[in-house]
Amino acid sequence: LIGIVSCYNMSRPTVFIANPSVPKIAFDILQDVANVVSVSGYDRESILKEVSGADAIFWASGLKLDKEILDAAGPQLRVVATMSVGYNHIDLAELKSRGIPFSNTPRVLDNAVADMALYLALGASRRCFEGRQQIEKGTWKKYFDTQWLLGRDISGSTVGIIGLGNIGQAIARRLKGFDVARILYTGHREKAEGKELGAEFVNLDTLNRESDFVFLAAPLTNETRNICNEEFFSKMKKTGIIVNIGRGELIDQAALIKALKTGEIFAAGLDVMTPEPLNTDSELLTLPNVVLTPHIGSATVDTRNAMAELTAKNILRGLAGEEMFTPIQL
Ligand code: DGY
């Protein structure tokens, strides 16, 4: 009982960290002004059991943050912050109806995620996974076969970016260093940043038909879900390469697998897929023309620390009744 009383000290707000692996920097920042309680496990049940009494929730999970969890926290809850740039897993309407401010972590992960996007694009276009398979199988040719494992050049190519937000722009900046011929982008509107990057605003159909590389860097919404579907792949160039660093559900995965198997497109590089974790019997794992990484776009030491720091600082702002550094308008 003494433990519980000291943990939920009345004079200090309680911040509930809903993930046991959050970087220490978040605790260092929050502990100055709050009682910080970390969940004991990664599962929803642990969160539901332990969130009660929180004034703020530090979310760092792909699990849904919904009415049930907000109810379990209790009526004193007044701040929610997610340690992620994406927030498709958060029930914004529910937060809005309760008047709870909410923030995410834009910008601090742009470079790490854009680096991963380029890795996937190059890995897929240069057939890196297939090459490794050949080494493992002992089928690396002893003679110089000039036609073996030929890939596609990124230099001189037309690149299409679906979603020229902060990450899309970081991808475009990198692409300029690879001497691409054109950068196309699509989204809700033409952007000044697009002009500065020398990128052309086009509609989805034009981007679809003209791109040699397609990068998916859009948030997952009802509008973008399955934006790359059977029809999209049928319009892509046969030499085309698709890269997804956004969310798996931006792609109709069954349609992608079909397009990769039938040669409708050349290759794919995916950091995100459906479901996550991917089933180990997924057909995606059997295809030589796919490079896969397990949703690690932002997984560098510095980036994860920066995300944790920003989330913690947003929570302090919210608890003080001030505007968060990176609020989401509800
Ligand atoms: C993000 O920040 O949204 C990354 O995808 C990690 O979930």
Structure explained in plain terms:
By secondary structure, the chain is an alpha/beta fold. It folds into two domains: 2-106 and 301-319, Rossmann fold; 110-292, 3-Layer(aba) Sandwich (Rossmann fold). It contains 13 helices and twelve strands. The chain has a seven-stranded parallel sheet with strand order 8-7-6-9-10-11-12, sandwiched between helices. Helix 12 links the parallel strand 10 and strand 11. Helix 6 packs across helix 8. This is Glyoxylate reductase/hydroxypyruvate reductase.
Attribute tags:
330 residues; oxidoreductase; 14% strand; glyoxylate reductase (NADPH) activity; 2 domains; seven-stranded parallel sheet; Glyoxylate reductase/hydroxypyruvate reductase; five-stranded parallel sheet; disordered N terminus; binds (2R)-2,3-dihydroxypropanoic acid; Rossmann fold; 36% helix; alpha/beta; 13 helices; D-isomer_2_OHA_DH_cat_dom
Shape: elongated
Write down the CATH class of the largest domain: Alpha Beta
Determine the strand fraction and express it as a percent band.
5-15%
Q: Please give the count of helices.
A: 13
Derived structural class? alpha/beta
What is the chain-wise order of helices and strands?
HEHEHEHEHEHHEHEHEHEHEHEEH
Bound compounds, each kind once, are: (2R)-2,3-dihydroxypropanoic acid
Largest sheet: 7 strands, parallel
Return residue spans where pLDDT drops below 50 for at least 5 consecutive residues.
1-7
Helix % is: 25-40%
Mean pLDDT: 96
Number of domains: 2
**Might you state the CATH topology name of the largest domain?**
Rossmann fold
**Measured distance between first and last alpha carbons:** 38 Å
The CATH superfamily label of the largest domain reads NAD(P)-binding Rossmann-like Domain
Just name the CATH architecture of the largest domain: 3-Layer(aba) Sandwich
